[in-house]
Design a protein that fits this description.
Layout: E1 2-6, H1 12-22, H2 29-35, E2 41-48, E3 51-61, E4 64-72, H3 81-95, E5 100-106, H4 110-118, E6 122-127, E7 137-143
Parallel strand pairs: 4-5
Antiparallel strand pairs: 1-2, 2-3, 3-4, 5-7, 6-7
Length: 144
């Protein structure tokens, strides 16, 4: 059974490993060490049998929030973990006073686009060559 909880600094090695498995442009461990302690940054991890199988993070400052990353181990996808992690982010952003949330997603990531649309996000624009490999991104927004 999966458990979702707030992340801690002790989760960084597992987050770094999972992000490398999920994304072509992962952050460094140093970037995570700099982000996690920030007051405006928050995140959650999903565990199964004590092992980290997903994470999500974002930021909230005043009325705006942003989802930075949602990642789920490939073997755990399709079980609702991405949605549960996204919901945790949205609830935390709202609790911190945010009135809207933004994100960018690769145009080719149809699973993530479907997840975000199922949570009420709408596309606001396409950002050409947004990613380092030249892929375009959709910018999406949801009012909280």
């Amino acid at each position: 059974m999966e458990k979702i909880r707030a992340w801690t600094l002790a989760d960084i090695p597992a987050i770094v490993a999972l992000e490398r498995a999920c994304f072509s442009d992962p952050w460094t461990a140093e970037a995570w060490l700099g982000a996690i302690p920030r007051a405006d940054v928050f995140g959650f991890v999903a565990e199964e049998n004590g092992e980290l199988v997903g994470f999500a993070c974002g930021t909230a400052l005043f009325e705006d929030s942003e989802i930075w990353k949602v990642a789920v181990r490939e073997t755990m996808r399709g079980k609702g973990l991405g949605g549960a992690l996204t919901d945790a982010l949205l609830n935390e952003a709202k609790a911190r006073g945010a009135q809207r949330t933004f994100l960018e997603v690769r145009v080719g990531n149809q699973a993530a686009i479907g997840l975000y649309r199922s949570r009420g996000f709408e596309t606001t624009r396409e950002r050409k060559k947004y990613y380092a490999d030249g892929e375009d991104a959709l910018e999406m927004k949801k009012d909280l």
